[in-house]
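Deliverable D2.4 — example input (structure tokens):
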């Protein structure tokens, strides 16, 4: 197998040419099976994979968790993340995008100043522009006209940046206080940022905003897209991720420093929001994996 593909695919065997359409750039490969593919064994990849079920939704075993991959939605797998089809009797039709790990890290570092990206294992519907870029990549790779290498390089960069923008990851989702023209919600946001470590109720936040609890929930969601509780959790998890990138505190210490009452709850929330446990996240960020 080509060294680039071996690095990209990891343990996965390259399907026979008669079974799959393959489209290559220098840093990205896209595979679309011509027939149903039977993904029997547990495996990992050296690069990032984005899988799109084409004909039906199907269950996948991702590490120790079973997740339904939704039809026509993108699902990310991180490098070295163990996965397999949960139903061993299911034949699959899908589109698979593979991106070289170092290329994605370098791109992310240039754009966001952060290298080690960990995508959340959840389904996402990409915008029409990104889907069109993928179609253009396939056409350019298939036709191989003059200058196609340059166009594929440009499309690879565009696709990678769009995935970084749209797919949930450890890139900060709450990068700062998102102020609004609504002064009541402005006060509530300030309160959540300043008091996220402390114990308080919804009524305490409503009192600061000079609103009833129901008014606060409704207005807060209109302004931020989240409930006050979800926004608070995002702040706590963002602070936890910042602390986990350092070695100064244990996971338990970070748990309490971010306002969680017990380690089990912290781990559950962190894994739901980020896709992996705090310890696994720290290992990934520090380059242990």
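Example output (designed residues):
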């Amino acid at each position: 197998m080509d060294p680039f593909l071996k690095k990209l695919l990891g343990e996965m065997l390259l399907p026979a040419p008669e079974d799959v359409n393959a489209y290559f750039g220098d840093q990205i490969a896209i595979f679309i099976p011509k027939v149903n593919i039977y993904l029997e064994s547990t495996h990992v990849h050296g690069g990032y994979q984005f899988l799109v079920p084409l004909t039906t939704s199907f269950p996948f075993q991702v590490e120790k968790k079973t997740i339904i991959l939704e039809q026509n939605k993108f699902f990310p797998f991180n490098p070295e993340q163990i996965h397999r089809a949960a139903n061993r009797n299911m034949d699959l039709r899908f589109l698979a995008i593979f991106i070289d790990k170092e290329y994605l890290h370098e791109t992310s570092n240039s754009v966001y100043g952060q290298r080690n990206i960990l995508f959340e294992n959840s389904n996402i519907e990409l915008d029409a522009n990104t889907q069109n870029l993928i179609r253009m990549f396939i056409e350019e790779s298939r036709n191989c006209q003059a200058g196609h290498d340059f166009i594929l390089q440009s499309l690879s960069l565009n696709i990678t940046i769009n995935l970084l923008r749209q797919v949930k990851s450890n890139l900060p989702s709450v990068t700062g206080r998102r102020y609004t023209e609504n002064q009541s919600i402005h006060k509530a946001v300030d309160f959540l940022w300043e008091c996220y470590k402390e114990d308080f109720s919804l009524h305490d936040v409503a009192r600061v905003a000079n609103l009833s609890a129901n008014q606060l929930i409704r207005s807060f969601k209109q302004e931020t897209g989240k409930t006050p509780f979800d926004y608070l959790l995002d702040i706590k998890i963002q602070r936890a991720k910042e602390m986990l990138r350092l070695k100064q505190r244990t996971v338990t210490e970070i748990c309490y420093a971010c306002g969680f009452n017990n380690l089990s709850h912290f781990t559950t929330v962190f894994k739901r929001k980020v896709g992996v446990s705090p310890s696994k996240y720290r290992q990934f960020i520090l380059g242990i994996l």
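The chain is about 45% helix and 15% strand.
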